[in-house]
Design brief:
The complex is a heterodimer of chains A (about 400) and B (about 500). With about 400 residues, chain A is mainly alpha-helical. Helices cover about 70% and strands about 0% of the residues of chain A. Chain A is built from 15 helices and no strands. Chain B contains 19 helices and two strands. In chain B, helix 10 packs antiparallel against helix 16, helix 11 packs across helix 14 and helix 18 packs antiparallel against helix 19. The chains are: A mainly alpha (about 400), B mainly alpha (about 500).
């Protein structure tokens, strides 16, 4: 990796530089020709070894680093990972010969060691994958189990059937729980995204009195356990009829209400967009609101997708708030509360396989969605983790 | 106070340095706490100063202002109406009228009720057919809730009154200079441009006030009442009890010590849980990320996808299923018994100690993939030259990990570690879905169990025990713990504070 540091020494006149550089280049070329020949053998082998890794790494598109200039090549203008660097070429020809001799002997044992350690890593990784997958395989197996609806002491079912799904749709309120959750998730995804973007844009790009104070107050408020406010909130919502029967709007309000406090990650993103863009637009006469909508908004695609995704997924997994707001009205449950009740002591013997079937129906679409947007998720969490 | 002695520090070995750093940190905790107290004091002082100056300003304005401004002190928007800001003036006027009606019909009664929280809960009366019925009179909960609402309405009104007066005076000055004050269209244009933050923040802030600030204020007040299972409105009243609940839970005075014992054990377990869960996930996550990133390993994407599945699948599905797998009659015991490895079921989640270990282990299953994702991105950012030069100097893989990877990761992810620690203190899902706090014990009060965290205990107290006052106290104490830890860490790691560094 060459560093093209600009020459700042004032004593060297431009014409001298040219001379000097020409000389230097000639020298380097000669040396390089010598070295290259000697090291060629040595290098070729090493390159052959590293090359497949290089391709493999470049295929890894899902791991990219938060980059507001956006898209495509994750390594654009960045240092390549260590594996991509060509091996060190010794400058002294004599030494190079020695090394290449030595390398021929040592490379075999080195390769063997490498193979052994890779085998070990593979074993660990495969073992981990198995452990990580077992619960999901178990979920599928139980969801399609035909015999007995309670928990059994063997892993694979003796009889495969769709009975549990039929039971789920006919005997329980699963369908209404599912649609409740879906409606809530869709609305929350839209509203929460708008709120989060508005707050993070204001706090990141605009400077107004009380901004720091506002951020500190939100930080402090965020330190209270979220559930603490729920008791009062429950009675406030009850006042306007947004609990039990009316819990869909109630839950939407609960999820959306304080979402302005979750601005950190997208603010971190906005902070990295150069301010000169705003200034240029302002000089051209755009109002700040217009800057937000026509300049920042289109640039913020990754963070918008991340925010929409998180907002959409949260209601599917929420048990704490939903169990309180929907208390006592079974049809208003969301999937989490509904399926949780399946595993009560008095229900588990008849509903266990139905729980697995329902869990599968929730997990599959969510997982597909998540996996297809995984790239944005990674960007979000990485950016959030680094900037705090 | 202990100052870090750099000469001594440099002379030590790795282990020595590590312990020396920890020692310095611990010795300096009083200093950090003092800094925090100083900062809070300064905040209060400057806040109070601002309020006093504001009041003084308003009073001064009254004497400086002309007749229109003076009338505006009593009839909001009066000045604006006569200075070409008709719509703004009308809005202020409407606000005042609505506020007065609200207070008369509603507010005054609840505000005065706040002191006693009701006198009579319910009486037995005879209805028109001579039958005994229960007539509900005062409802403490309603009084408290509406009282709090009224307080906030009043605060909002006072704020808009101050704004109205200030604007009126500003307009007066403008008119004196011969400039026409901004009309409504000008206001709207300003809201899209230099006052754009007001447009963008209005709805979100209103949401935060209604859905977080007011409920929190209410619950903080509840912590000073005896609103528990024995005092449930509407059949009974509750009343102010001062700091009794705090004394009870902290074991001050000779009150119910069982509650204090429960609290201290659960607090200790919560801190242990948060610490172990955060760091075990952190190190194992980095390790896994490095294993997957190791050169020569194929199917990197495949391994990552498998791990990430635990993030994708909603936790109530995966964790509830796992909890049933480890139940006493669950599949794990079943398979182990079928294979003849054990003769009777292991009490995975019902033995106190084993349950605590198991929730930590299962938490790894949830948390490691998350860290793996974060670490992968950061690991790729570490300048490759560092490793190269380390290799040339003959550093082993382990040394490279200790001297390059970990310091880099730590410096970059320090803020994340803090947030992760805090969110683990409040990790409701993992504990509640896995054990719901079980195994329960009679040793603890308030329905708590061995794996209960403060947050799950708060949930149980609220939903199952109806001890709202205790729940509120626990919530406040959790806040104090979280805020204390965060403030100390903020003090220690100044890098977190630099927000404009990257702009």
């Amino acid at each position: 990796m060459m560093n093209n540091t600009p020459n700042t020494n004032p004593e060297i006149a431009p014409e001298n530089i040219e001379e000097l550089t020409a000389e230097a280049i000639a020298e380097t070329e000669a040396a390089a020709a010598e070295t290259a020949e000697l090291a060629a053998e040595n290098t070729a082998e090493a390159i052959a070894e590293t090359a497949p890794d290089a391709e493999e790494l470049l295929e890894d598109e899902d791991i990219i680093i938060m980059n507001p200039e956006l898209d495509i090549d994750p390594y654009d203008g960045k240092d390549y990972p260590s594996d991509l660097i060509l091996p060190h070429i010794p400058e002294d020809p004599d030494k190079a010969i020695d090394l290449s001799e030595a390398n021929k002997k040592s490379s075999r044992s080195y390769k063997a060691a490498e193979k052994r350690s890779n085998a070990l890593v593979y074993t660990v990784l495969i073992l981990m994958s198995v452990i990580w997958l077992i619960p999901f395989v178990y979920l599928v197996c139980q969801a399609f189990r035909g015999e007995s609806q309670c928990m059994v002491s063997y892993f694979f079912p003796k009889e495969w059937s769709l009975k549990n799904f039929e039971f789920l749709f006919k005997e329980t309120n699963f369908l209404s729980w599912y649609s409740n959750t879906l409606i809530i998730a869709l609305v929350v995804a839209v509203v929460q995204t708008v709120i989060v973007l508005a707050v993070s844009y204001s706090l990141s790009r605009l400077r107004f009195s009380g901004r720091k104070l506002l951020m500190n107050v939100m930080l402090v408020l965020g330190m209270f356990p979220g559930f603490l406010s729920m008791i009062a909130l429950y009675y406030l919502l009850k006042l306007v009829g947004f609990t039990s029967e009316g819990s869909i709007p109630g839950l939407i309000l609960v999820y959306v209400g304080s979402s302005g406090m979750g601005y950190y990650i997208s603010k971190g993103f906005f902070d990295t967009i150069p301010k000169s863009l705003d200034e240029a637009a302002a000089i051209d006469g755009a109002s700040r609101l217009r800057v937000f909508f026509s300049i920042i908004f289109p640039m913020a695609k990754p963070i918008i997708i991340y925010t929409v995704m998180m907002a959409f997924l949260a209601p599917w997994g929420d048990f704490m708030f939903a169990s309180l707001i929907t208390f006592g009205h079974e049809e208003a449950y969301n999937v989490a509360v509904g399926l949780y009740k399946f595993l009560d002591k008095e229900h588990i013997t008849t509903y266990f396989t139905a729980f697995c079937a329902g869990g599968l129906l929730v997990a599959v679409p969510i997982t597909i969605l998540f996996m297809s947007l995984q790239k944005y998720y990674v960007e979000g969490v990485t950016g959030g983790a680094v900037k705090g | 106070m202990m100052k870090r002695d750099s000469v001594r520090y440099l002379k030590m070995g790795d282990v020595g340095r590590f312990f020396y750093s920890i020692l310095c940190f611990i010795c300096n905790i009083p200093l950090y706490i003092w800094n925090v107290i100083k900062a809070i004091g300064l905040g209060i002082w400057s806040g109070a100063k601002a309020v006093v100056l504001g009041i003084w300003d308003i009073i001064k304005t009254f004497f400086v202002g002309d007749i229109l401004t003076k009338i505006s002190y009593f009839i909001m928007g009066f000045g604006q109406l006569f200075r070409g800001q008709t719509i703004r003036g009308l809005l202020f006027l409407t606000l005042e009228v609505v506020f007065i009606f609200f207070m008369k019909a509603f507010g005054i009664g609840y505000l005065s009720g706040l002191r006693s929280l009701g006198d009579v809960a319910a009486t037995t009366e005879l209805n028109e057919w001579g039958l005994e019925i229960i007539a509900y009179k005062d409802n403490s909960l309603q009084i408290l809730l509406y009282g709090v609402l009224t307080v906030f309405v009043c605060i909002g009104f006072i704020a808009s009154w101050v704004i109205s007066v200030k604007q009126c005076y500003a307009a007066q000055k403008l008119v004196k200079q011969g400039i026409k004050p901004r009309n409504f269209r000008g206001d709207l244009r300003a809201l899209a441009d230099e006052e754009c933050h007001k447009t963008l923040l209005a709805v979100p802030l209103l949401g935060i006030v209604i859905f977080t600030v007011i409920p929190l204020f209410f619950m903080i007040l509840v912590a000073f009442t005896n609103y528990d299972h024995a005092h449930l409105p509407p059949t009974a009243l509750f009343d102010w009890v001062g700091f009794d609940n705090f004394k009870n839970i902290l074991g001050i005075g000779a009150t119910d010590s069982k509650f204090a014992h429960t609290f201290s054990s659960i607090l200790l377990w919560t801190l242990i849980w948060a610490l172990v869960a955060t760091f075990s996930n952190y190190f194992l996550g980095i390790l896994v990320a490095m294993l997957i990133n190791k050169k020569g390993i194929k199917f990197k994407k495949g391994f990552r996808t498998i791990l990430v599945m635990t993030i994708a699948v909603p936790q109530f599905v995966s964790l509830l299923l796992v909890s049933k797998m480890f139940a006493d009659n669950g599949i794990v015991n079943g398979v182990l018994m079928n294979m003849g490895i054990i003769s009777e079921g292991i009490k995975w989640l019902t033995d106190p100690l084993l349950a605590r270990i198991m929730v930590l282990v299962i938490n790894l299953w949830v948390g490691v993939p998350y860290l793996m994702l974060i670490a992968t991105g950061i690991l790729m950012n570490i300048p490759a030259e560092l490793y190269e030069s380390a290799r040339i100097d003959g550093a082993s893989g382990f040394q490279q990990f200790c001297k390059i990877t970990m310091p880099y990761m730590l410096s970059v992810t320090a803020p994340y570690l803090l947030t992760s620690f805090v969110s683990n203190i409040n990790n409701f899902n993992v504990i509640y879905l896995l054990t719901a706090g079980a195994p329960k014990t009679l040793e603890f009060d308030g329905g708590a169990g061995y794996t209960d965290l403060l947050i799950t205990w708060l949930y149980t107290l609220t939903l199952e025990k109806n001890d709202y006052n205790m729940a509120a106290v626990i919530g406040i104490l959790t806040f104090i713990v979280v805020a204390g830890i965060s403030l100390i860490v903020y003090n220690v790691a100044p890098s977190i504070k630099n927000e404009e560094e990257f702009q």
